[in-house]
Amino acid sequence: MKRRFLSIVLVLSMLISFAILVTVVAADGEEVAAAGDGLVITDTNGGTLTVSEDYTYENGILTVLKGGEYTVKMNTGVTSTSDVIIVGTSDAVTITLSNVDISASGNAAIDVGTASVTIMLSGSNTLYSSDQPAIHVNSGSLTISGGSSDDLDATTDSQGAAIGSGSYEEFSGKITITGGKVNATNNYTYYEGAGIGSGRNGEFSGNITITGGTVTGSATTYAAGIGSGYFGAFSGSITITGGTVNGSSGSVGAGIGSGRFGDFTGSISITGGIVTGSARNGAGIGSGAAYGNVHSGSISIEGGTVTGSSSEYGAGIGSGSDLECSGNISISGGTVDASANRGAGIGSGSHGTLSGSIDITDGTVTSSSKSGSGIGSGEYGTLTGSISISDGTVNASATSGAGIGSGEQYSFSGSICIEGGTVTSTSDSGAGIGTGSGSQFYNDGSISITDGT
Predict the structure, then answer these.
(1) Per-residue pLDDT tens for 371-381?
(2) What is the pTM of this model?
């Protein structure tokens, strides 16, 4: 009898212990779900979650199984965890991250995959993966929002994007950022993925939309800060309507646009916000450095304060080095400041022909280069396309390239048409409008000035 009593007590103790592991009681008496050593998941609206129906938490993986609104925070006494979050439903899911710190290996810190997920930021949140994207999304939809005091630091040391697709994986989904402070960093030092966008050798065919917040995307060398990774074609779109946005590449990727050796056939549209793109040999905004690749996409600036710079061979806004710029660059509003060293301020990079078009119809535009043109082609780059200015205030300058026209050492056979606006174009040793200094080739282009100042 005593043995049976002890057995019953033991069983009850085990059941009570198990119950404590999977549930806690909130202060108001409503039962909410909790699990695992690292993270706690609750129903944002105060309901009760059921294991295996709403979520599972096994082997350090918290899997959301059903659409709904959830809050994830750190468990009591835990400051950082290697546990990860996977969204395993096609239903819409909203996850509020409340001061979460995840450092993962072998998995993304959060895997959106093909799902539709909104991440609401609350407080300071850190997501890291050593070998996968910090937030993985390929064909799904991810929206990130928060207030001015809410932030997310997403970092990877992999060839995948910090936020986006993995290595050799296409990004065909959608990433939307509406608020909060979002910092996405790819620290991999060779053939890396983008800060926000696609991983190495992964085509960027999806869309990134930024409407607010403070957003920074950076890559170390080969990828775009915001856009495609190394060898990743950029056929999708980046749309910026507001916020403070900074995209940077340490060397041959674009700050905002395509990575090295990635065809640029998509579009970049900026209608508002404070936008900065910077690179070294890629364009600040546009395409990365490449040989034999295509830059036939479009860059449209309709408003905002936009700065594009390339410190070596790329254009400030346009194409990276060694790449023909056959697409269209249009500026119809805003304040634009573009600068380059050997590429054009606005146009093609060094050793790159400008065969496309540059159209300025309004706005305040300041564009400068040293051996490239202020507006036109970079050094050793022929201008065979067209430059049209019909309104706005335009100030173009160069040291040895033309203010508006071709860069140093190469020819001008395209067309420059000024029909209005206030235009100032100067060069120390090249033409103010026309060819750069030292041109050794044919210069049979046309210059037409019919109106303006």
Answers:
(1) 999 999 999 99
(2) 0.93
